[in-house]
Amino acid sequence: MTTFASGTDTLTRDALTVLQPGFTGTTAPDWLLRRIGEGLASVGLFGRNIASPEQLAALTAQLRAERDDVIVAIDEEGGDVTRLEVRTGSSFPGNHALGAVDDVELTREVARELGRRLAECGVNLNWAPSADVNSNPANPVIGVRSFGADTALVARHTAAYVTGLQSAGVAACTKHFPGHGDTAVDSHHALPRIDAEASTVQERELAPFRAAIAAGTRAVMSAHILVPALDPDHPATLSRSVLSDLLRGGLGYDGLIVTDGMEMRAIAGTYGIERGSVLAVAAGADAICVGGGLADDETVRRLRDALVTAVRSGELAEERLAEAADRVRALARWTAQAGAKDAAALPGARADIGQLAARRALTVTGAEGFTPLTEPPYVAALTPVANIAVGEETPWGVAAELGRLLPGTETGSFAGEEAGREALEAAGDRRIVAVVRDEHRHPWMAGALDTLLGSRPDTIVVEMGVPQAAPRGALHIATHGAARVCGRAAAEVLAGA
Fold first, then answer.
1. Which of 35, 411, 435, 479 minimizes the number of CB atoms within 10 Å of its CB?
2. Tens digit of pLDDT for each residue in 27-65?
3. What pTM was estimated for this model as a whole?
4. Residue 126 main-chain phi, psi, to 5 deg
5. Which of 373, 394, 301 has the alpha carbon at shortest distance from 84?
């Protein structure tokens, strides 16, 4: 049962209620359980908290023993961004692969099965889907996390994803409002700016969010981006014009508004997390996400005290904080009710739906003259620096999957101006499979392919990012993502499986 520490006053409880902190370890630390007893209503999980489905289920049960309606959130997009399978790679292709197939029923099925697995482990809020229209091919942080560059396509698949996920009893958190697709800067590192006209933002960026709201998304996540056409002075997360006037007033949204991680440099490096959290709640945010980098009791205390102090000084209206806390509690009630049904008994649940989707997402060029490999090749992974959302823990590529089909397959990772020459030397006389991510964004990668194909025209190219560059190689496979299932689907083509 839910119990609260008797000494916790209403203002302090409300300040704790609006926080979504993280922690380290695979069991809940004492400080976190104590804060839940004092009114903390949400906990965010990351890859560091997950070792297995069984361990995760035990962890969420531990949290619910302290508070039965606690919201347990996770950043599980499937595809490149996975926390459930952070050490193995995802069993589900990401948004870009689903957009490439463009079958909304398939997207709904994938999201429902992903939601079923989350619900089985006790997770009831997913910081997904990404509703960003990837209109800027140079975008360093969205890319394959987006369904695509076509607004209508992104809108219909966002709605399908929301419907599928929530049918499993897991609340969707559609992100990153008002749209992170037309950026060339990663908000983990700095504050991106979108200089589109207001009419463009309305027609392009906002359409998928309208679709998500119509589909009943229970939460929306704000973006740490500056859109001068909407607010020339404040990033969206801190903007009353964006959150209260546009999202609430203009789009008619009445669910939970969650911030993106407040320790991201776009906020922490300009406002600081305490000041940023106060401004976010004042602007209309209901929940403060923090914990990807700062994951300790001191962070929770600092943010709690900053909110309480802001109310007592008159900087933050007590009614606004209370309203935010009430929205968190409303979502907690929904998740508790939705979680009461048996997600495992969902009609049509298919454990293999992710692999089937990954196979359908492949675009293969040059297959007419291609003979499947019978000897183990050399897989040259031309590896860019991973963005923070994806992380470096999660394996990617085709080597592991190809090695299962063709034992003896060898692999190496290469980067920089000498990558092509080094890969040629490492491969020796083996057939080369060059694996790339976003060739169009990395001149050194394009140069490495020039070197490989110049010396070895029979080189096979597998593009696991956004396939913007022209297909080349003896065979070219675009997987539209680097999830484990995408690698397996490509390996099956290469080995004729």
1. 411
2. 999 999 999 999 999 999 999 999 999 999 999 999 999
3. 0.94
4. -115, 125
5. 394
